[in-house]
């Protein structure tokens, strides 16, 4: 076995400082975000952790594929050229690579993520 096993612990209660403003805001209500337990696996080009965002509307420019499990909150994500997708606690989502669009966080959203 190569590499180390990455484990995200207590994702529902991990303390996250949501003190960074969204990079590409689209509303007057600015979302604040943060992450915790970010772990890199460079040998396979992946990373994982827990991410949280307060309500607001902003663009997603992430180029990686992403698998996420929504832990709490809800939002609507609208991919460029696609239909809006509502995501709520308990949902899982797979974003394809180069998936750009608009996050509309309605209630503080917490998710685990795997970028690859």
Automatic annotation (TrEMBL):
Q: InterPro entries, per this entry?
A: RmlC-like_jellyroll, RmlC_Cupin_sf, UGlyAH_Cupin_dom
Q: Which Pfam families match?
A: Cupin_3
Q: Which residues form the (S)-ureidoglycine aminohydrolase cupin domain?
A: 46-113
Which SUPFAM superfamilies does the UniProt record give?
RmlC-like cupins (SSF51182)
Q: What is this protein called?
A: DUF861 domain-containing protein
Task: Record the organism.
Answer: Candidatus Pantoea multigeneris
């Amino acid at each position: 076995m190569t590499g180390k096993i990455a484990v995200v612990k207590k994702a529902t209660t991990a303390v996250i400082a949501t003190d960074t403003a969204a990079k590409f805001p689209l509303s007057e209500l600015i979302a604040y975000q943060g992450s915790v337990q970010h772990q890199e696996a460079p040998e396979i080009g992946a990373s994982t952790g827990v991410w949280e965002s307060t309500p607001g509307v902003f663009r997603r420019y992430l180029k990686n594929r992403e698998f996420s499990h929504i832990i709490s909150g809800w939002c609507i994500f609208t991919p460029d050229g696609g239909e809006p997708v509502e995501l709520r606690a308990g949902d899982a989502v797979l974003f394809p690579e180069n998936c750009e669009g608009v996050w509309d966080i309605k209630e503080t959203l917490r998710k685990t993520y795997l970028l690859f």
